[in-house]
Amino acid sequence: MSKSYWIWHPGAFELYHSMLLHNRRTSAKTVNINGKEERRSVYYPPMWRVDGPCHNADLTKTEELQAECEIELFSNTEYCHILVDGKKYPKNTRIVLSKGKHTVELHGYKAESFPAFYIKGNAFNTDRTWLSCNNNNQPGRHAGQSELYKDHCDNVEIFKFKYEKMSPVSIKQENGGVLYDFGCEKFGKIILENAPNGEYLLCLGESVEEALDTAYCQLCVNAQVTKGAFTSVPVAFRYIFVPNLTTPLDIFVNFEFLPLETKASFECDNELINHLWRVCEYTMLLNSREGFFDGIKRDRWVWSGDAYQSYFVNYYLAFDKEIVKRTIRMLRGSEPMTKHINTISDYTFYWLCSIWDYYFYTGDKDFVLDIYPDMLEVLSFVEGRLAPDGMFERKPDDWVFMDWSTFDSNGPICAEQMVLCKAYDSISKCAELCGDTKTSARAKKQAEYIKEQINLLYWNEEKGAFVDCYKSGRNNVTRHANIFAILFDLTSKERKEKIVKNVIYNKEITPITTPYFEFYELDAMCHIGDFEYMTNMLDSYWGGMLRLGATTIWEEFDPTKNGIEHYEMYGGKYEKSLCHAWGASPIYLLGKYALGVYPTKAGYREYDVKPNLMCFKHFCGTVPTPKGTVTVKMDGGRVSVLSQLDGGTLILGGKKYTIEKNKELTVNM
Amino acid sequence: MSKSYWIWHPGAFELYHSMLLHNRRTSAKTVNINGKEERRSVYYPPMWRVDGPCHNADLTKTEELQAECEIELFSNTEYCHILVDGKKYPKNTRIVLSKGKHTVELHGYKAESFPAFYIKGNAFNTDRTWLSCNNNNQPGRHAGQSELYKDHCDNVEIFKFKYEKMSPVSIKQENGGVLYDFGCEKFGKIILENAPNGEYLLCLGESVEEALDTAYCQLCVNAQVTKGAFTSVPVAFRYIFVPNLTTPLDIFVNFEFLPLETKASFECDNELINHLWRVCEYTMLLNSREGFFDGIKRDRWVWSGDAYQSYFVNYYLAFDKEIVKRTIRMLRGSEPMTKHINTISDYTFYWLCSIWDYYFYTGDKDFVLDIYPDMLEVLSFVEGRLAPDGMFERKPDDWVFMDWSTFDSNGPICAEQMVLCKAYDSISKCAELCGDTKTSARAKKQAEYIKEQINLLYWNEEKGAFVDCYKSGRNNVTRHANIFAILFDLTSKERKEKIVKNVIYNKEITPITTPYFEFYELDAMCHIGDFEYMTNMLDSYWGGMLRLGATTIWEEFDPTKNGIEHYEMYGGKYEKSLCHAWGASPIYLLGKYALGVYPTKAGYREYDVKPNLMCFKHFCGTVPTPKGTVTVKMDGGRVSVLSQLDGGTLILGGKKYTIEKNKELTVNM
Hey, what long-range contacts does A146-153 have (CB within 8 A, 24 or more apart)? Predict the structure, then answer.
């Protein structure tokens, strides 16, 4: 068994697949083709610069061999060679290396994608330890590799999804056509079999209404059946409607998914919550692919703010390090950075935050070392756009998103400063980890300065809250900055208490309408021990969607709306995504605060288990870590913890109990 | 007839073809394949970072239509759409635009190459006037276009060469195999026809000796004949040797070339010079392709210093603006600039120089405006690597080439400072042309400062010459800096005279061995009116190669060598290029100084004709300009000039005569 991986110029694999995926979005348009109105699927470009991979690679390694070895180079390109101690060989030839020290270089080029290499043999195994410089003046960086590509027969240009052919759960005549229901959201190629040759319009829908609305559905497939068959590009849908059809066609989906293993669970006495957990799990599954997607129907893009939340959910669901690393690299793109990530300033800041969080959950220092030079480039871009004193200010063309909400933006908004502050904190910690003490100290100082300024400039004593903007004099209060003040510990205990009263529990302050920011609100409330606010919201807000029949979590939910009003967004009747990853936070919230499992030292070297029964009578659940799982059971009288790793402390009623590896700890209350 | 061009994100076409061409180099290696020694063609990677094109494009234009118009979008990608006043259409659909103002956007993506667009119709013709922004924060830049791609059926991914199938001029049995001679250097795919199936090794050579030396020839083709035929990738050679062959195979070459029209001529009473001119012309033809190549056999790369000379030859041969612009863009690559062009500092400086020269010969201000932002980026890179006072100093990993010659490099060499000084002069003039007066003034001042410092630090009064290095105390004199001092007018008349005596005519100063630097030496001597030095050198140096049977000009020539010693270079028996563009300078020298035609205002708005009979009894020749040709005839008693353009002045014996367009001017001496 070879210990080799396919390797490449760092980031090439991620940039290549990112480029492909960001250019797969389409939208259905009504087009006049030679005088006839037709519904057509039209390309929808990404709204930020999408970088392609580096097409050349040079990788090198020096190794001292204890005995004679034989190696053979595999590559995905004809344009390559292996240089052994300065002597060139083509690929697919066996090379014998004598005992002793050798230097091997791999050079390759591929115009259509990126060059990748694999060495088979008992020496010079290809992996991250190879260095790549690619003819830049920069110091060599570690080669890229992926756990998914470890066999010399692998094709790194084809992403390793799994496939399952599925039939609709119901087929019925409707509106002069045929409506197919696949039971819940699917993603994959639509397959037509045994069909009469000709052209068929397939109208897709996440809802019945969307599929049946042939003039306004968001996605359609123009199926040209030849030889009785047709296969589409991969698309997302629950329903397919084929208008003007009397005899149903044989339609299937070749369901395409990343084989992520759920390592977590949560079961309690509340069936709605159990159901919600599984719906969140499925929502995450559909949106976890090459990277973490926003939603599977519409964009299918990697958005940094959305992904930032998926990372947390992932740490409490599949704990797949690979997808987090891929997503971080995809979002970064390549040099030079000329615009914020996804064009959004807060999304750049979350990107910076995500690296420390990744390290803290996984303990994977290698990745931080590998990505740290990119972090510094991002920092340099960010600092080139700050106000002279280092506070955030909006520059032309920067999108300050924060949330789908109305802020007083007559000046930089408070919540943005807070994420910037948190980003500096992440930089400071990562820099320290990488031995860059100068940057670490500078970033720490800057984080402290921003925190100070936030408390000085944005706090309004009369409102007992942080205001959006201190320049306009309007003193507008929204939830966002106040949530971050609690969640990121940016203010005093006294001010936090005021915020809870004056903002969180104040019904006059516009409620959050996206599951996106609801994540932060609930995380903040749990952070200060108010679990009821969270469980109430799971029931009313998330439960509200489930009661309307949701099989996946929506991009946005406003309980006051009715019928197909729920599907409207961005000015389109069905433009809302009904399967949006940012709705999956209950998995994180229940894992971290009900089961109560979280690391206290990087990579779960030490961790706490601080379970809270909340509104439940009993629950049982599992949380994954890099070293195994932690299972927690709780009811009114007893807690038991079974952990596969050392370093744990059970905290219960102010008391601490040491958790021993693989030995159930039971505490009666 | 549509006035449209295929358009793309600026630079995408050039970067795409540059990436392909820089990755086509191979070298023949003896490889052990399963215990058997075989000669194989192995990939040889470029030694600098080669950038791929941008895979996304967005281009936009607003136009006021005087009447209803119909347009149709063509593109090389399925991933595209056209947005008319915010409404999307796919490609290949007819779109009717009403009278009035419209804004059209083109969006596209192509993973394998780059997206390109063509609008057919009587409005919104696609050309340079479209703006491209590609989701960067930078201001929009003009779309890229090429004169070669003006038909909607064109494929921008295939470079538009011409082809001609050619047979060998002789076939003979030799060394147990068969030797084919194609008469002179060819480039193209080798074709085997009516051949018995099997594998043949084709050993290629620019010389007979190389082709016959199966163990050391630089290039080989491993021909796998199936169904009686085989076609190779394009390669360069004059001779093909097939070892172990008794019955000759039918071998052809599909000669591949850029259809450049020679607009110049030179005929005189000296047959060697007439022959030389044609050999130089053919050498240029073979190396003028997607861009200007160094040599057609070995590298087939675009090197900035080599290309810089080809630009000048081109201005006196084909006057093809397109290939100059393509070459300049290819050399530039994309952001960020992390290493010197071709890794060589002087090559970056020549790149900067070339842009003003291009403008001065062509008058094409559009290109200067388009490339100016790139110039500024290069300037910023260069200045980030200069000494604190702005003089050149060598940084680690920078290659200071200057010439294949030995310099005292115990400190920055004088010639390098001189090219830097010239580069600042070019920047200053281009900046002024683009309205950037601040940069213009700063660059001018810097050029003056460097000139001053050169004269202060590097002039050695005792030697009466500039020394390589002023730090070592060795006072080593080479020709290079002294040539530039004359050619770039960097010193006083008095010092120039000393240089001519103490350096140029001083046989103790190592002579130039490359046609590359010989160009500058002869240019400098002609510049100060010493034509005899030049014509002597054409006879002895260039004539020396011709007398050895050269059918194209060599990379380097040392008359003291013998036999196959001439073919040796870089440690390889036949590694020298025998068809090297930098040898074609006689075309430039004879056009500029014998015919005496050169612009005095940009784009030949005004120009001089200052013919010099030199050592000739008579000559007649033509020089191209952007506005037509200038033909000059001269003998001992008479000069006549026939020009297709206004603005010319004939200068003869200190007198000036106005040249009238299309009217022959004859002056008796």
Answer: A146/A5, A146/A6, A146/A13, A146/A322, A146/A326, A147/A5, A147/A322, A148/A322, A149/A5, A149/A6, A149/A116, A150/A2, A150/A4, A150/A5, A150/A6, A152/A2, A152/A4, A152/A74, A152/A118, A152/A120
Quote the CA–CA distance of A117 and A155 in Å, as a whole number: 11
User: Which residue, among A604, A605, A606, A596, has the nearest Cα to A639 in the 3D structure?
Assistant: A596
The span from the CA of A277 to the CA of A265, in Å, is 8
Residue of chain A nearest B134, judged by CA positions: A49
* Residues whose CB falls within 8 Å of the CB of residue A466, separated by 6 or more in sequence, listed in order: A414, A454, A458, A459, A460, A477, A481, A482, A485, A491, A499
Nearest CB to B339; choose among A94, A111, A137: A137
B373 with B379: CB under 8 angstroms?
no
Closest alpha carbon within chain B to A27: B88
Token readout for B535 is 């014509």
Q: Which of residues 375-404 of B touch A (CB under 8 A)?
A: 397
Q: What is the pLDDT of residues A177-221, one digit of tens each?
A: 999 999 999 999 999 999 999 999 999 999 999 999 999 999 999
Q: Do A135 and B19 touch (CB under 8 A)?
A: no
ipTM of the complex: 0.91
* Six token digits for residue B363: 């008058």
Judged by DSSP in three states, A75 sits in strand
Coil, strand, or helix at residue A441?
helix
What is the distance of C-alpha A420 from the center of its chain? 20
What length is written for chain A?
Answer: 669
3-state helix, strand, coil in chain A (%, to 5): 30, 30, 40
Residues of B whose CB is below 8 A from A31: 89-90, 93
Residue B27 touches chain A, beta carbons under 8 Å:
yes
Identify all chain A residues contacting B80, using CB atoms and an 8 Å cutoff. 43
Q: Are B154 and B74 in contact (CB under 8 A)?
A: no
Q: At CA A383, angle to CA A381 and CA A388, rounded to 5?
A: 145
Does B474 contact chain A (CB < 8 Å)? no
How much is the average pLDDT of B5-20?
97
Residue among B52, B55, B336 whose CB faces A336 most closely: B336
**Does residue A580 contact residue A555 with C-beta atoms inside 8 Å?**
yes
Say whether pLDDT at A106 is over 60.
Answer: yes
The pLDDT tens digits for A139-168 are 689 999 999 999 999 999 999 999 999 999
The residue type at A180: Y
In this structure, the strands spanning A648-652 and A606-609 are parallel
Partnered with residue B505 across adjacent β-strands are none
Residue of B nearest to A112 (CA): B112
- The strand pair at B230-242 and B198-205 is best described as antiparallel
Say how many residues make up chain B. 669
Residues 6+ apart with CB under 8 A from B277: B266, B586, B587, B590
CB-count exposure of residue A82 (10 Å: 0-12, 13-18, 19+) = buried
A336 touches chain B (CB under 8 A): yes
Question: In Å, what is the CA distance from A176 to each residue of A192, A205, A206, A242?
Answer: 19, 17, 20, 9
Within 8 A of A380 by CB-CB distance, chain B residues are: none
Q: How far is CA B199 from CA A335, A556, B32, B252, in A?
A: 46, 66, 17, 17
What is the rounded distance in angstroms from the CA atom of residue A587 to the CA atom of residue A641? 19
Give the strand pairing for A648-652 and A618-625.
Answer: unpaired
A514 — pLDDT class (breaks 50, 70, 90): very high
Task: Tell me which residue of B627, B666, B658 sits closest to B644, measured CA to CA.
Answer: B627
Contacts of A94 in chain B (CB under 8 A): 34
pTM: 0.94
The helix/strand/coil state of A433 is: helix
Of B10, B55, B599, nearest in space to B326 by CA: B10
